[in-house]
Automatic annotation (TrEMBL), chains A, B:
Signal peptide: none annotated. Residues 12-72 form the HTH tetR-type domain. InterPro entries: Homeodomain-like_sf (IPR009057), HTH-type_TetR-like_transc_reg (IPR050109), HTH_TetR (IPR001647), KstR2_TetR_C (IPR041490), Tet_transcr_reg_TetR-rel_C_sf (IPR036271). It comes from the Bacteria. Keywords: Coiled coil, DNA-binding. One of its GO terms (molecular function) is transcription cis-regulatory region binding. Residues 35-54 bind DNA. This is TetR/AcrR family transcriptional regulator.
Amino acid sequence: MTRIVEPEAGPRSKRAAILTAAVDCFGEAGYEATKWSTVAERVGIGQTALYHYFESKTHCLLTIMRLELERSHDRFVEATKDVEDPVEALRTAVRAAYDVSPHEVLQMRILQNHMDLLSGTRRSKREEAERVAARQLVQVVERDWTNLLVKGMSQGSFPLRDAQLLGSSVLGLIVSVWRWYRPSGPTPLSEISELIEGACVRMVAS
Amino acid sequence: MTRIVEPEAGPRSKRAAILTAAVDCFGEAGYEATKWSTVAERVGIGQTALYHYFESKTHCLLTIMRLELERSHDRFVEATKDVEDPVEALRTAVRAAYDVSPHEVLQMRILQNHMDLLSGTRRSKREEAERVAARQLVQVVERDWTNLLVKGMSQGSFPLRDAQLLGSSVLGLIVSVWRWYRPSGPTPLSEISELIEGACVRMVAS
DNA sequence: AACTGAATTGAACTTAACTCAGGTTGATCT
DNA sequence: AGATCAACCTGAGTTAAGTTCAATTCAGTT
């Protein structure tokens, strides 16, 4: 469990700007469809300057994914920390999952579209470090949801079922939205949130 | 709605062999991680021979995705065609979705991992044709599930809800499995199938 | 045997990610 | 203020993988 230390930002570091630009590009055009040099342009630097901050295009992608996973986990913990009733906790967690900015929507999309990157090991050190960290965070987030279910089951609020499998399924249901949802689309996120919230409760509690 | 005509197989065509090899490679190592030339090797031809059958690596990928979508649709129709009761139809459809061979598991994985390809338009003719066909098939499959829900709702078997959104969600739940499921893993597909079947019924019918 | 179109190939081309050796900037210290 | 040094940046060149192309082989047909 080696933690990744965020490189402390020198005063003229463009790391944050690169991440922001990359999220916009990768999220809208897709990772493969966007040229690494385009990200550089958007930030206002030469393409080779990118390598001062990231070892590779993939390293940047993995970093975005890890950051998004950290965010998801933190948000889950923050939202559910003092909700006692399991059903309410579940509802709160679902609502929190959809309480996101447009930029975060892009990050979720990127994360979902490239989960498969977390399977195979990477060649370079820093890439592999990010990959492993992200992989672990996936498990952490899965455990967040599974624990919620376990608690509810042991309290008798939820019928007893395979909490592991059901947890993954609930999570899968929730994040599946990010594959098709577009802020510009016909369905507002609030409506989606409500429907999924109900669906999750029925899935788990009835 | 231009249908794609499957190129009729000349007696010594290697198209099928290429598709099989590509599914194995893309499914196990990942699309980007596998070199196009590796597929050629596995089939036993030079890399340039691939271009006699597919315009590009992406064209091959899109073809795999379209074929898998056609299969999913056909299987859904076949499985549910003479099941009257909506709840039974739903159960049957879910079971059919998980009644797949290991090779089909790979195809589903590939499909799910590259859905984002279907968003942006492609440069070349044949690629774009496959993309549009696949895109349409996604909608067809979504309609399959949505129609099932609509029927159940109008018959009073399911409570009235946004069938469109609920249909996408059910489908999203079902296919989310292919992102993590491995035949070699600890959980047998039968167990997954049963849990998801129950979850879908509760989601929709209660 | 000549013909035809499908199937195949080696060599060359293209593109985008990446490397490298060196140059610039600006925060900090004396 | 001037020196220093690490952070930051760049242009030129390399590499790897996908792709193109002109030429060739092969199998079946007339």
